[in-house]
Specification:
CATH superfamily of the largest domain: Intergrase catalytic core
CATH topology of the largest domain: hpI Integrase, Chain A
Number of strands: 3
Radius of gyration: 23 Å
Structural class: mainly alpha
CATH class of the largest domain: Mainly Alpha
Shape: globular
Number of helices: 13
CATH architecture of the largest domain: Orthogonal Bundle
Strand order of the largest sheet: 1-2-3
């Protein structure tokens, strides 16, 4: 890794307080760019300042030939733009060649989500299973109720600490992308499921004693913070029972949360705040989902559709 690249990544982590996941992604993308440029120029003494727009377009073509998706290529180009912006701001290059390179046009897709009857079916099945009191089932109910109630990402769900939950006020503090914190209301059904899990959590802590993680809210039966892989497995397992062929991801409950709010007339800006989106443009995809649903209803119901 070049010294300039190392300085840039340090700047992201220390000065801009960018999340470790983002820093790792930038390091990976820019490291691959550095390797490509070394092979492209065939000169170990090449400099970042000699890179031009055509060279970066050749790099993008190289990524496409390797089979990377348009979204991955766009992310890599964004990393290059941010890196060159850093170099230009520090007078290390005379221009930002990445600004003149257009991002690949991403294929539009509507996110998968559950309709209201599917949500009811899912939660009723979870409630029935959780009545036996098994730790894993009680935790699954609390997690899925909270995801649907608050529209959280699973990384945000995993990061919740006991001190972040205020069940009397009906709210939770979550840490989103870029370590940004936000307060999200928690619905009454989710509060009930969370209180039931809190009793199961207390039993785990009593069983494991000082070895238990008393900070984390969602504890496994081993007394440790539930892992992302465990959360992913639990959620996708239950989603597949609702709609086996749909291939719904863990994000489906977040999509469902936003779609149902907008269908009921919620303000787009309010939904943006609840989801923790930096830009309202990101939230607007859910309006497309709602419009598609309305079109389907229209085609089925209108006699001259």
């Amino acid at each position: 890794m070049s010294d300039l690249l190392h300085d840039f990544l340090t700047h992201l982590a220390k000065e801009r307080d960018v999340s470790p996941h983002t820093v790792a992604a930038y390091a990976r993308d820019l490291g691959e760019l550095q390797q490509f440029l070394g092979a492209h120029y065939g000169d170990p003494a090449w400099q970042w300042g000699q890179v031009d727009r055509l060279t970066l377009r050749a790099w993008m073509a190289h990524l496409a030939r390797r089979g990377l998706s348009k979204r991955s290529i766009a992310r890599a180009l964004s990393a290059a733009r941010t890196f060159y912006r850093f170099l230009h701001a520090n007078d290390l290059v005379t221009s930002n060649p990445a600004r003149a390179v257009g991002s690949p046009k991403l294929d539009k897709h509507l996110p998968g989500y559950l309709d209201r009857s599917q949500v009811e079916t899912l939660l009723q099945a979870l409630q029935t299973r959780a009545q036996d009191g098994k730790h894993r089932d009680v935790m699954a109910l609390a997690m899925i109720e909270l995801l649907y109630s608050c529209g959280l990402r699973i990384s945000e769900l995993r990061g919740i600490n006991r001190a972040d939950l205020d069940l009397l006020a009906g709210q939770v503090k979550v840490r989103g992308k870029g370590r940004k914190e936000r307060i999200v209301p928690v619905g009454s059904h989710a509060q009930h499921a969370l209180r039931a899990f809190e009793r199961a959590r207390d039993a785990v802590i009593a069983r494991h004693g000082p070895a238990a993680d008393r900070q984390a809210f969602f504890l496994s039966d081993r007394g440790t913070r539930a892992s992302l892989s465990t959360i992913h497995k639990v959620i996708t397992g239950w989603l597949s029972q609702v709609d086996e062929g749909a291939g719904l991801s863990t994000h489906a409950l977040r999509h469902t949360f936003a779609t149902h709010l907008l269908d009921a007339g919620a303000d787009l800006r309010a939904v943006q705040e609840l989801l923790g989106h930096a830009s309202v443009r990101t939230t607007q995809i859910y309006t497309h989902t709602s419009v598609e649903r309305l079109k389907q209803v229209y085609r089925q119901a209108h006699p001259r559709a």
